[in-house]
Every structure is written in C-alpha cells, then in structure tokens.
Amino acid sequence: MSKFIKSIALVSCLAILCFSGTAFAADTVKIGMLAPLTGFAAADGFSAYESVKLAVEKVNAEGGVLGKKVELVCYDDAADPKQSVPLAHKLIGQDRVVAFVAGSYSLPTRAVSAIFNDSEIPLVSAYALHPDITKGDFTFRNGFLGTVEGKGAAYTAVTMLKAKKIALIVSDNDFGTTLTQGFEEFMKDHPEAKIVSHQKYPMSEKDFKPYLSKMKAADPDAVFFSGYYFQVGPAMKQAKEMGIKVQFIGEEGADSPKTIEIAGDAAEGFIMVTNLNRDDKRPFVQEFLKAYRERHKIEPDMVGASAYDGFMLLVNAIKQAKTTDGPAVAKALAKTANYDGLTGLIKGFTPEGEVVKPVQVQTVKNGLFRYYGVITDPKLITPSK
C-alpha cells in the first residue's frame, strides 16, 4: 500500500470531525470546512484539508487573528450534497463557525452556499466551478469560474499550440458543462480553428476507448479532455495503448499527482490550465511546496493551494474588518485587492464574488508538472456576469 493510500486510510479511520492540531480553548476563531475525505474524490479532499492545516499552523504561529488562535473545524462530505447539507447546518448551529472554506466539488458546494449566505457567514469556494455557488453577498470563489477556465483551455489550444482542429471530450456534469461553455465562447471569435468532434461521457465512465476512437476519426490536432484525475489519467493511458498520438489538454480537475501516477509515461507532454505554478519563484510559494512535499512525500496540487488561499483570504478579511462579524468580513473580502496568494496575484473579486487572477498553464515534464505559460489577458481572466 502506498504512503498516499495509507494517509487516506488514516484520515478515513479517524473521526469524521477533523481538527487542525490540538484542541483549543473555547476562545478561538472557528473557521469551518467541508472536504471529500472519503469516496471517489478522497485524493482531492486529502490535499485540500492537509493544505489548509498548513495555513492554520502558519497563522497561529504568527499570533493568530484578533488576538485569538484559529480553529479549523472540518467534516467529510464525501463530495455528496446529501451529506454536505446537514454538515453545513452543524457547522453553523453547533460549531458556530464565523467563516467557511468550501473545499469540495460543485454539487455539494452548490448545495451549501445558499445556507451559509442566508446565515451571513462568508464562504470562499476553493475550486468548485459552478456559477450558482456565488449567488449571494457572502459567497466568493478563489478558484476559476468554469467559463474562465474553458476560455483558458481554448486559448491554450488555439493561440499557444496553434491547433486548427480540436476535439472535445467532456464530463457530463456541472464541471464539464461550464468548461465547454467557456471553450465554445472563445472559439466563436477565432474562426481560424474549429471543433471537429464533441462528446460527453458520464461521471461513472471507466472505458474511454469508444470516445477516443470516435475522436481519432475526426483527426484533430488537439483534444480538450475535461475531467478529474480518475478520468483524465485512464483516458491518456488508454489513448497510448490505442496508438493515438494527439495533444491532450486538460484543466484543474486533472491537477493532481494521481493523474501522472495513473497515466504513467502517457502523461508526458500533457498540458492543462490551472491556478498553481510549481515554478513560481516567490519564496512563500516555494516554502509551501517544500513543506507539503516533506510532510506527505507526494506532490502538492492546485486543489490544496486553492484551499490554502481560500482560508488565508478569509483570515485576511477578518484582520481587515477587525471583527468576525459576517457582514463586515464579507465587505472586506469584496474589497480584496492585489493579494499575494499561492495561486498568483489575486487582483480582487468581481461584484459577483468571482476571483480575477492569471490562469496558469502547466505541462508534464519528466513526470512532474512544470511551467508552460500564463494567461493574463483581462478579457479572458475576468469573469463575465
């Protein structure tokens, strides 16, 4: 059993409630979190939770916030809305958290965002993409809106790679739908390239060979394959087994060391749009990457970095507001400007609560994610209403 799997098992065997560090006295600032620590998305949940724990440790080592230690109250939602809703009510009613980091996927995050908004508890979604998540004055997103990431993927294909014929193979869920919308919006303004094949696959799919065969018949220069690590990894491996040589382009769902582990050498050359640049030279970014690698013996990913930033944005807003009062903290979040995050310079949030920051483009070289490029065009990185 790998060290990573052992770590996941350890998290699963612990109580569902997971506190960061030792128990604090009652006089703490409680920040809640939901993450999929078990189930199909456990690798992402592990990354998000463990990364936020590093953030908590850093904040408390530097004196906490408002003269108090920060206490992280995290529950396992297994990426399931049926579990996330009662846990959200527990965080609010029983644990009395003053802010919330949404460290899970779109479905469970959509299900709880209105609950926190109605309770006037500021929420920052780490990486869930669906636009409905930020429908409220107390809801914000540090990860990219799906349409922004979709445009970024199209820009990568057309502008960076000069692809003329592009195939789409996308997951048939909120994730895939919003990504596709952004991709197609970009393509409308770029007639020099065209989509030659467009297929959807169900979340439960494991055999991608029929989709790959149909895609191959269209003879594309590149394929935008949207999905999570447990979908993109097998797809690239199966494509190599079929002798298919086409440039794979993905997005943050595949930003995980598990993608490379699953695909093996078939991942080499894979390109994805995401929000973590492993080659970022800023010292605090490299310190985080080093600390995560040393503690877990695996590579960090954008899920963890995004959750870390989500937590730090909330802490920064509490400090700016000089109170844990929800409306004041939300107002401070809305005024965030030029914040130095792990995931880049966060220019701020739109009136709808959507983050504005560069889109990072990474590629796999020698089995590791490395810098390929960055997208800074305001027209692409600024979400539309």
Question: Care to describe what's here?
Answer:
The protein has 385 residues and is an alpha/beta fold. It folds into two domains: 3-144 and 281-353, Rossmann fold (3-Layer(aba) Sandwich), CATH 3.40.50.2300; 146-274 and 360-381, 3-Layer(aba) Sandwich (Rossmann fold). Helix content is 42%, strand content 20%. The chain contains 13 helices and 17 strands. The chain has helices at residues 3-13, 42-61, 81-93, 106-118, 146-160, 174-188, 209-217, 229-241, 257-263, 283-296, 302-321, 326-334, 378-381, and strands spanning 18-19, 29-35, 70-76, 99-102, 123-125, 139-141, 165-171, 194-201, 222-225, 247-250, 271-274, 339-341, 344-346, 348-349, 355-356, 359-365, 368-375. The strands form four sheets. Strands 8-7-9-10-11-16-17 form a seven-stranded mixed beta sheet, sandwiched between helices. Strands 1-3-2-4-5-6 form a six-stranded mixed beta sheet, sandwiched between helices. Strands 12-13 form a two-stranded antiparallel sheet. The longest helix is centred in the N-terminal third of the chain and has 20 residues, at 42-61. It is globular and about 65 Å long. The N and C termini lie far apart (47 Å). Residues 1-25 have low confidence and may be disordered.
If classified by CATH, what would the architecture of the largest domain be?
3-Layer(aba) Sandwich
Structural class: alpha/beta
Question: What general outline do the C-alpha atoms trace?
Answer: globular
Mean pLDDT: 93
What is the radius of gyration computed over CA atoms, rounded to a whole number of angstroms? 20 Å
Order of helices and strands: HEEHEHEHEEHEHEHEHEHEHHHEEEEEEH
Q: How many domains is the backbone divided into?
A: 2
CATH topology of the largest domain: Rossmann fold
Number of helices: 13
Q: Please give the alpha-carbon distance between the first and last residues.
A: 47 Å
Strand order of the largest sheet: 8-7-9-10-11-16-17
> What's the CATH H-level superfamily name of the largest domain?
Response regulator
Q: Tell me about the largest β-sheet.
A: 7 strands, mixed
Uncertain spans, ≥5 residues at pLDDT below 50? 1-25
Query: Can you give the helix content as a percent range?
Result: 40-55%
| CATH hierarchy class name of the largest domain | Alpha Beta
Compute the number of strand runs: 17
Strand content: 15-25%
